[in-house]
Amino acid sequence: MLFKENDVILFQGDSITDVGRNRFDAYSLGTGYPLMVAGRLGLLFPEKKLTFYNRGIGGDRAVDLVRRWDRDCLALKPTWVSIYIGINESWCRYDGGEETTPEAFEAQYRNLLDRTRQTLDAKLILIEPFVLPVQGLNRDWRDDLDPKIGVVRKLAREYEALLVPLDGLFAAASVKADPAYWAEDGVHPTPAGHALITEAWLKAVGVN
């Protein structure tokens, strides 16, 4: 079993991780996959006395994580760091005209990983961003997002991190049900979408 007694598991990212968490409650997990993962692990391993933190913030990009990493990651001394970032880089390009190149995204992501490795003895979990082609929405972000997914995969290999390959998993799930069933706007998961992320996350860490 990968988890040890008193492990501290931190979920970091944007709105897909945030999902309405209470900013005034340090232990609030929101209503999405962090809560689902914590519930599952708490059920399976009560003797481990695991602690869970959610520090996702809606609208964040990798550059925002860089600015708050000392406070919202390193200071918490997690033994597991789960990072889910990248879709807002595409959103800001197409809706706001602010582009983040793959090179800049990689440099920002490396900053997070390097600081974590230098300060903590923590296992890393990198989660791919995804986007789905929801009917009725004028959104095709693949040209921008695909290189960033490539960056996440590359860094997972290089830093020997666990990878949660969401982009392919959501594409495959959209064969079983309409894309909007998994993410109504193609980005933000429904409860079923969060359950998909939860199962993929647990599989990546070796929990069935």
Secondary structure category: alpha/beta
Kindly provide the radius of gyration, computed on alpha-carbon positions and rounded to a whole number of angstroms: 16 Å
Largest sheet: 5 strands, parallel
First-to-last CA distance: 11 Å
Identify low-pLDDT runs: none
Strand residues, percent = 5-15%
Averaging pLDDT over every residue, what do you get? Answer: 96
Shape: globular
Helix/strand order: EHHEHEHHEHEHHH
* Helix percent band: 40-55%
Please count the beta strands (DSSP E, at least 2 residues each): 5
| SS element count, helices | 9
InterPro entries: Ester_Hydrolysis_Enzymes, SGNH_hydro, SGNH_hydro_sf
Protein name: Lysophospholipase L1-like esterase
Pfam families: Lipase_GDSL_2
Account of the 3D structure:
This protein has 208 residues and is of the alpha/beta class. The chain has 9 helices and 5 strands, in the order E-H-H-E-H-E-H-H-E-H-E-H-H-H. The chain has helices at 15-18, 33-44, 62-72, 87-96, 102-119, 142-158, 166-176, 179-182, 191-204, and strands at residues 8-13, 51-54, 80-84, 123-127, 162-164. Strands 2-1-3-4-5 form a 5-stranded parallel beta sheet, with helices on both faces. Strand 4 (123-127), helix 6 (142-158) and strand 5 (162-164) form a beta-alpha-beta unit. The model has no long low-confidence stretch (mean pLDDT 96).
